[in-house]
Amino acid sequence: MDLRHLRYFVAVAEELHFGRAADRLSMAQPPLSQAIRRLESDLGVELLHRSTRRVDLTDAGRGYLARARAILAEVDEAAHEARRIAAGTVGHLTIGCVGSATYSLLPAISRGLSRELPGVDFSFRGEMLVPDQAAALRAGEIDLALLRPPIADLSLTVLPLRRDRLVVAVPADHPLAALRRVEVADLAGADLIVHSADRRSVMYDVVLGLFRDAAVEPRIRHEVGETSTLVTLVAGGLGAAVVPEPVTALDLDGVVFRPLARPAVTVDLAIAHRTGRTEPHLARAVSVVRRLVPHAPA
């Protein structure tokens, strides 16, 4: 089926005049008339009654007009959809976030993405550990991840966003709460709450590295999988925790945050996706997130 002939027929059927239809289509009248004749010949039915004075639709023509309009509308919508997809303005993306990004960045990112990419449907999964994020990216369960490197996986593309300082979360009535800054040595003998070793948390390795470098034996009392649970246990007086500074956004009663003494220790935050994904809406979302995430001083 030649879509041009459909458009020609619709123009003639709506104008009921070959001259006006030809003007509307910016073409000469004889080729238009020939195209309609060819369409009728291909269909084997007469669509138009013609006379020297007027043009009328046959019953078959009226039925064909309704279908032709619907087909052209679908074709036009498909073309419009293709252009929107190519421009990265439609689609669906699921974003998985580590705990600290869940509380400090997710509200602003979700608002910014909805504002700048209103045709893209976003969903979010919070409180994900990095190994779970990597597995979900590979499986296609999430499309983007805000995570803490390092991540040694060549199937993933990891782009830096910023560096976050580490702080110490302590119960408000803990002796360390009286200090302006906390040394790792000050945590010797203190009960610690850390992210889970069994689930291969990046922060678990970071914290143990801090204590190893300071030649301090950590006294780990609780391991948890979620940052919110970790801070809640601190608020409950069960121990102290070393966390990225954005965790302070939780602002729970009973918890105070103190910076680690200089030299300040930082952890990276990055955005990742499966290597080889080139969808325009994903690329646009990555660009928006990289612009929205405020830089944190190292």
UniProtKB/TrEMBL annotation:
It comes from the Bacteria. GO terms for molecular function: DNA binding; DNA-binding transcription factor activity. Residues 1-58 form the HTH lysR-type domain. SUPFAM superfamilies: Periplasmic binding protein-like II, Winged helix' DNA-binding domain. Keywords: DNA-binding, Transcription, Transcription regulation. Belongs to the LysR transcriptional regulatory family. This is LysR family transcriptional regulator. It comes from Actinomadura physcomitrii.
